[in-house]
Amino acid sequence: MLINTKIFVQQNNIHKNRKQKVTLDYSDELIFYKLLDQNIESGKTVTITFPNEKIEKDSGLYKRIACCANGEDFFDQMVSLAKTAIDAYRNFATRNIFGLWKDNKNLTLRMLYQAYKVDYAFDNKTGTYFILLAPNGEGSDSKAWMSLA
Q1: Nearest one of 46, 48, 49, 50 to 22, comparing CA atoms
Q2: What is the pLDDT of residue 77?
Q3: Domain extent listing, the chain
């Protein structure tokens, strides 16, 4: 069984950094998603500001928000997880190591975002919409996971 220590590291980071707030301006660029993923992994509360536009269902931000604890209905999450499992099995059967690596990376990212909750709001002062990604719990100060690394 593979245990991804990123999940344990994130819980420890949430315990230390959950009160730190970071604001990012939405962009459908790779650098935006890298910064977002790094801040989620480091356990910070993230505010994403964006213009009054509809977020496309196939955008990276929508896919990440859907992985949050309250981001998508339970049934939809189960269907998405089943699709990931089918893709992983297909890659295993065809001995596609790069496909398996990509599936593992996507599953890890889903689990990291699962530790967060999402809220949508409008700021009257600035006239902008924003998405608030906040840790769903207190995290853990235990470092017992370090023996796994």
Answers
A1: 46
A2: 62
A3: 18-136
